[in-house]
User: Which sequence fits this backbone?
C-alpha cells in the first residue's frame, strides 16, 4: 500500500465533503416531503428512508475524519520521524488499519 501525498488526501477530503453536502441537501428535501411512516408511493418520503440517509452521511463524515487524521499523521508525525521510507510506509499501513478498527 502506498502513502498518498498531502494534496491527494486534501483533494479526497474535499471531494467527499462536496458529496456529503449534496447528501445533506437531499435530506433537507426529503424532510420537506416527509409523510410519516408510510412507504406508499406518491405520499412523500418515509422516516426509514430519511434515517438511512442520515446514517450514510454520518458514515461519510467519519471517513473524512480518517482522511484528516491521515493528513495529520503525514504532516505532524511521520515527517518528523527519522526512519527510512519503507519503515514509514509500514507504520502508515499499521496506523491506517488501527484507525479502521475504531470506525467499524
Assistant:
Amino acid at each position: 500500500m502506498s502513502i498518498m501525498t498531502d494534496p491527494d488526501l486534501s483533494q479526497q477530503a474535499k471531494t467527499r465533503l462536496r458529496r456529503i453536502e449534496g447528501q445533506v441537501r437531499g435530506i433537507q428535501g426529503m424532510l420537506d416531503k416527509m409523510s410519516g411512516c408510510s412507504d406508499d408511493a406518491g405520499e412523500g418520503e418515509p422516516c426509514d428512508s430519511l434515517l438511512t440517509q442520515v446514517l450514510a452521511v454520518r458514515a461519510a463524515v467519519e471517513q473524512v475524519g480518517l482522511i484528516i487524521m491521515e493528513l495529520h499523521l503525514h504532516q505532524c508525525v511521520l515527517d518528523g520521524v527519522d526512519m527510512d521510507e519503507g519503515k514509514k510506509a509500514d507504520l502508515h499501513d499499521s496506523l491506517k488499519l488501527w484507525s479502521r478498527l475504531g470506525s467499524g
Remarks:
- The mean pLDDT is 82.
- The two ends are 20 Å apart (CA to CA).
